[in-house]
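Attaching the record inline, Q. Sequence:
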Amino acid sequence: GKHMIIYGGIDEEGNYLEDMHTLNLQQISQRSLKWIQSTYRGDPPGKLAFQASCTVIYKERNLNPATGLYRLGEAKISNKAQGKIKEEGIYFFGGKDEKNKINNTLRILRIGRKPNEFYCPCTYGQPPEPRYG
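Structure, as predicted:
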């Protein structure tokens, strides 16, 4: 990917955070990278630490150099893959909140737009046990 994203965490004083920071890995200026505090909208995970996350995107789109955090490049998705991914984005699961509650909530950060947008998708079936780490 072209970006590294940090969401939430715990600061040096033990406070749980709900901010998001982005590091553009392609914009190197004098051999250094610049952190940017990102804005987002929607229904974020809240003050959270120790959550798991992964990027879910069609591989054909990922190969397009125009694809990034704020823009999804055009891609010819194969007929076999078409419709297999309902929502491309960064998926966040679980974590531990400021009240020490361990959760099993899924949030998706929609990419390809600015600002990015969090939402909580409808899921069904028996969800995984709450977890963090």
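The radius of gyration is 16 Å. Strands lie at 3-10, 16-24, 35-38, 40-42, 48-49, 52-56, 89-93, 96-97, 106-110, 116-119.

More tomorrow.
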